[in-house]
Amino acid sequence: VFPDREPVELRLDHEIFHCVYDLKEKPQVPSIHAAWAGRTYERWDAQEPHYRGLFDDQGRMMAIICHNTDLGDGWEREGVDPWYFREFSEKRSYPLGINIVVYAMTH
Fold first, then answer.
1. Which residues, 6+ apart, have CB-to-CB distance to 75 below 8 Å?
2. What is the pLDDT of residue 43?
3. Cβ–Cβ under 8 Å, residues 66 and 48
């Protein structure tokens, strides 16, 4: 998208993790199928979530990259399984999704 930019790992103290919901860790959301298999990650080689940002020359975030996490399943699959909703949608996907939208709208 921006060939002249390198993604920068976002530290947990970045405002995007605290602007509405104060997240204590970088959320990792498995796909619903991985969760049903008892995993909190999708692949054995992808157990640590990474959040990276692409920034412009003024230091404003232009894009966020959510790697080794499936936040989308937390938004898409909330009606499939009440357990998945409570464990992953409510606790992880929704809070970070709301933070991302608020951060984008206010920066």
1. 89, 93, 94, 97
2. 77
3. no
| 1, pLDDT greater than 80 | no
C-beta atoms surrounding 94 within 10 Å: 18
Residue 50 to residues 26, 42, 44, 47, 83, Cα–Cα distance (Å): 8, 13, 15, 10, 25
Residue 74 in this model has a pLDDT that exceeds 80 = yes
Name the phi and psi angles at 102, rounded to 5.
-65, -45
Name 51's Cβ contacts closer than 8 Å, sequence gap at least 6. Answer: 9, 10, 14, 16, 17, 26, 64, 65, 66, 67
What is the rounded CA–CA span in Å between residue 43 and residue 104? 30
Chain mean position to CA 7: 15
**Rounded-to-10 torsion of CA 79, 18, 47, 37:** -20
